[in-house]
Amino acid sequence: MEERKMVVGLPRAMLYFRFRILWRAFFEELGVPVAVSGPTDREVLERGTDLAIDEACLSLKIYLGHVDALVGKCSHILVPRVSNFGRHRNMCTRFEALPDLTRNVFRNTGQKFLTYNVDVLEKKKEEDAFLEIGQALGYPVRTAKRAYKQAKKAELAYRKAKAREQDTLCRETGLKILIAAHSYVIEDAYVGRTVTEYLKQAGVVSLRADLADWDAALECSQELSGTCKWEMSREILGGIAMYENVVDGIILLSAFPCGPDSMVNELVTRRVKGVPLLNLVLDSQTGTAGVETRLESFIDIIRFKKGAL
Amino acid sequence: MDAVKGRNISFPRYAEYNCAFRFIIEEAIGAKYIMPPAITRRTMELGAKYSPDFVCTPFKTTLGSMIEALEAGADTLLMTHGLCRLGYYGELQEQILRDLGYKFEFVNLSEYDMSKKKEYIRIVRRLNPKAHPAKFLAGFMEGLRMVEYLDEMTAEYYKNCGFDASGGEYKRIYQDFLTAMYTAGSRGEVEAGYRTAKSALRRVPLKKPQRPLRVGLVGEFYTVMDAFSNLEVEQKLADMGVEVHRWMNVTNHFLRFSAEKNMRVKVRDLCAYEMGPTATPNIFWAREWAERGFDGLVHIKSASCTPEIDVMPVLQNIGADYKIPVLYLTYDAQTSDVGLMTRLEAFYDMIHMRKRVL
Ligand code: SF4
Ligand code: SF4
Fold it and tell me: What is the pTM of this model?
């Protein structure tokens, strides 16, 4: 049998948007080519919806659609398990289940999956996890270690730059709206982008809560919620706490029926006073229908309030 | 022991475990326990009314039960920590209740680091500054024993009650046992209640066929155990003449944790990692029962329960590999008895027919 060339597939969904710098830099350092699935479109979503359990969140449906698009086209597809980074630093349980869930859904395809496990409470740190991948692909520990260190540096630099960008946006004049959402919801071409594009063409400056400086955000999240245990929700909460006084409105953007958001966004609605809030929940049926109308009237309300002041 | 004056503690309804909560609060901590009323439609409706729409159902049920506990005179609410969304229930429920205007003290275990023993003492002291450490330990251990008795008797009950040949004795004894646990005021009463019921159950004549229909229940922690939340699915199946098995309970999940760790080893081929709070035992038992020739499996969860949705693809594969029917049930505050009955009857007809053919 012909030995197939090594190509690692990266589904352009879920944690891709959080870890793409880390992943890409790591594989590049190792010299392993990667293939990223294309941006989400109707077809990807439909395929994923067919593959997923009905009640799963929109993000998982999109994810499975992306995995499907890569199946048979790469030697491996990367599906990490990221459970937690320590106490009160958990990921949504879906990210614990992801590798096994994906394997079970695609078990008849013969596709190979590459997984790693970050579970700090069980003493599995991110670095160890990356050494695991290196090993699985046949690289010596030292090479993998160096690649991880380089990749981590690139990721940190990128995050710092993004956080600075948010701070700059804060100083812009004009109407400013903060979007509070998971990165993969807001950056998804088929769902979140409808919102950001609309705001852009309406001349609104949009900030992102999830891009605020992560360390500062984790700390600040305590102001809004003392026992929130989800890392990504805490970053978003922190971002809200850091920016709520400089923006004119906040959009809580969520993928139906997101577990953490179902609670965190309710808490935000009850605790963040004095800034207009818009709750937008996107699902696989309605998609983004009606979103523009709601955004339009939200902006009108803010403008009206500002003018009246 | 001196009970602290003016402190009336409650904890939301959870299956039949409130008898043990009461015992621990009163006998171990020396405070007064307010028993929240049994869950009814009203509890569910209250909870659903004030909860965010797409939060999982146990959040709504426990919120409703907290409201009813406050109405019954509780001034201190205790809420647990836990994996998954459960660990975040407390903070949001407290906020909702405060926004509604209720006055109470809230003791949220999620605010403590429950991996440290010291924290337990802090909590006990907070509930009753005069609590006596030795008495606490003895009372606490007996409370846990009550949980074990409860789980043992409940498992026994659902395996056999569908075959009671006496016309209702089995059920009556089980109900009496529950009453004994809810009213026990000392270690002696707990032990006596358990022993009486155990030997009484043994004397009830059963009419069980050589190969009865056997069904195993797996699923989400709260809904699979709470008879009101799952609309008494176990009793309904038993009444059709089914031997009902369920491994998941507080004893097995919390008090015998090492068993679960060892199950991991056997399910590696189906799932390489821990997929969620109850994934391992669910997957383990689904396959175990399939291998033992059970006639069907029922998977139970509340609406939008993330970890149980994620286990479903594995269960589907087990169902396909072992050709065992799996009934998937999702519960929300609107799930109706009639709808459930229709699905259970269809499921029963199928497994019954297969048994005759096979
Ligand atoms: S955080 Fe929400 S959107 Fe993301 S995987 Fe979990 S349930 Fe889905
Ligand atoms: S296991 Fe399911 S029902 Fe329980 S907290 Fe998690 S999502 Fe909610």
Answer: 0.95
